[in-house]
């Protein structure tokens, strides 16, 4: 992840490195146990066992992040919530933006079919709940100003586990005799913030016996992150029940009641929280797609609704970066300026003059760009020298399923990455951190009743790795250490 021509700066570390080996071994063992015993853990993909957990990969001490840019991202989130809410409720914009993509990207096309079906029938639940996560990298080419990598509108994960990373790092810093550093760890209430919004949506329906439905994968590796939401809701709101079902189970056990209410195995559902359904592999065939349509037809409040899911596509992100487009959604010029500041260059690859120009850019300077498809979940992008080959293999009409994004060149930090089964003692490595800011918004097209920034997460990866998904096995959980 280095710039083609500029030496990459290294941010000042939270603590002096390296640590004495004996001290390092001791504190790593304590940190692993802390992580397991407090639920900063996952099920193993390599050796799956539903009865066993291993700690989630983590960075031993918190990674440095520019304070001013962290505070900028936090302050901006409610404006981004407002933007995405307006985008999701603009039928003409979604239709026009995705018109080529849905012809060549089968998954996005299937989502759009559901959208058109419920539009034609009349959307039975005009209120949406969105739990969003806007992801950023600092760009050292622009004095470490944050640039948006993407905004997630479905299954925005790690609010649960990330909430425990700050107390874990506080413990580790105390063990290392660095208590004076704790003041630079920002408080993180992502778990409570996300869950409180779900319950707020549940209250709107005023159906005291109804439940919240979590839509889940057949096998859940990131189990702690999901269960913490469920446990928090039950503990804080004991009268609210959460049930978990896969798309297949929803097809088998779901139906609409006489007033359009969603019934799952006889229980009424008033809020649906998707932690699955964001990638083609979750839909084995017509049954799972039927389950998605059933939910969209229901009066339950969806997180996200189908239009919010479509609003999170990369093609929409690229369209929003076009000159003048933000004015369609945001009236306040100051808000528009603050949003434009975080955008990096985003270009369409459609088969037209604009798309041909983007291809020319990518072929001339591939190291300056990233190719992105309409997918969530990590591991799908094409970087640098691999871009020309990927473009050459694409048929002209296939290009509309992708966008071209200017690459962001983040500063490095240094630290110890601790992974299950990893080398002991760990070595100091060069790292890159991606900040995620969580937001929650509830409302109809014309009336927003709830809009908050609700927490953050930090994912950190080796500087040599392009992708950084923790669930995908490429990154590690972290928390920001704010520096001036």
From TrEMBL:
Catalyzed reaction equations: gamma-L-glutamyl-L-cysteine + glycine + ATP = glutathione + ADP + phosphate + H(+)
Residues noted as binding substrate in the record, renumbered to the chain: 133, 226, 459
Alphabetized InterPro entries for the sequence: Glutathione_synthase, Glutathione_synthase_a-hlx, Glutathione_synthase_C_euk, Glutathione_synthase_N_euk, GSH-S_sub-bd_sf, GSH_synth_subst-bd, PreATP-grasp_dom_sf
Essential cofactor(s): Mg(2+)
Domain of life: Eukaryota
Pathway connected to this protein: Sulfur metabolism; glutathione biosynthesis; glutathione from L-cysteine and L-glutamate: step 2/2
Glutathione synthase substrate-binding domain residues: 210-311
Binding of Mg(2+), residues: 150, 152, 376
Gene3D superfamilies tied to this protein: 3.30.1490.50, 3.30.1490.80, ATP-grasp fold, B domain (3.30.470.20), Glutathione synthase, substrate-binding domain superfamily, eukaryotic (3.40.50.1760), Glutathione Synthetase, Chain A, domain 3 (1.10.1080.10)
Name of the molecule in the record: Glutathione synthetase
């Amino acid at each position: 992840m280095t710039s083609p021509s500029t030496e990459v700066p290294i941010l000042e570390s939270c603590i002096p490195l390296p640590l004495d080996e004996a001290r390092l071994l001791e504190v790593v063992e304590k940190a692993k146990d802390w992580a397991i015993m407090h639920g900063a853990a996952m099920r193993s993909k390599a050796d799956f066992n539903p009865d066993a957990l291993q700690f989630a990969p983590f960075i031993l001490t918190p990674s440095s992040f520019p304070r001013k840019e962290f505070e900028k991202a936090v302050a901006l989130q409610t404006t981004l919530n407002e933007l995405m809410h307006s985008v999701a409720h603009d039928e003409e914009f979604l239709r026009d933006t995705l018109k080529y993509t849905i012809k060549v990207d089968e998954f996005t096309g299937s989502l759009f079919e559901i959208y058109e079906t419920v539009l034609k029938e009349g959307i039975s639940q005009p209120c949406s709940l969105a739990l969003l996560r806007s992801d950023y990298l600092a760009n050292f080419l622009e004095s470490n100003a944050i640039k948006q990598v993407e905004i997630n509108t479905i299954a925005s994960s790690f609010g649960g586990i990330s909430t425990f990373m700050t107390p874990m790092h506080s413990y580790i810093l105390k063990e290392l005799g660095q208590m004076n550093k704790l003041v630079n760890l920002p408080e993180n209430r992502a778990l409570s913030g996300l869950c409180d919004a779900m319950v707020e949506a549940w209250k709107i329906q005023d159906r005291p016996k109804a439940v919240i439905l979590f839509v889940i994968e057949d096998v859940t590796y990131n189990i702690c992150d999901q269960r913490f939401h469920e446990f928090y809701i039950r503990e804080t709101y004991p009268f609210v029940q959460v049930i978990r079902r896969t798309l297949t189970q929803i097809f088998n056990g779901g139906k609409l009641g006489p007033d359009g209410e969603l019934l799952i195995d006889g229980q009424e559902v008033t809020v649906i929280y998707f932690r699955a359904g964001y990638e083609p592999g979750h839909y084995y065939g017509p049954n799972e797609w039927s389950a998605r349509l059933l939910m969209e037809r229901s009066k339950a409040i969806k997180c996200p609704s189908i239009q919010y899911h479509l609003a999170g596509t990369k093609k929409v992100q690229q369209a929003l970066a076009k000159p003048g487009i933000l004015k369609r959604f945001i009236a306040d010029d100051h808000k528009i300026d603050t949003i434009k500041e975080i955008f990096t260059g985003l270009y369409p690859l459609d088969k037209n003059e604009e798309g041909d120009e983007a291809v020319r850019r990518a072929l001339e300077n591939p190291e300056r760009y990233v190719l992105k498809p309409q997918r969530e979940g990590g591991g799908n992008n094409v970087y640098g020298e691999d871009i020309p080959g990927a473009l050459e293999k694409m048929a002209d009409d296939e290009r509309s399923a992708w966008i071209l994004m200017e690459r962001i060149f983040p500063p490095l930090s240094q630290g110890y990455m601790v992974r299950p089964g990893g080398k002991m003692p760990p070595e100091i490595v060069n790292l890159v951190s991606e900040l995620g800011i969580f937001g929650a918004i509830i409302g109809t097209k014309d009336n927003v009743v709830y809009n908050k920034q609700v927490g953050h997460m930090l994912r950190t990866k080796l500087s040599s790795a392009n992708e950084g998904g923790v669930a995908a096995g490429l990154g590690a959980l972290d928390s920001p250490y704010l520096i001036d």
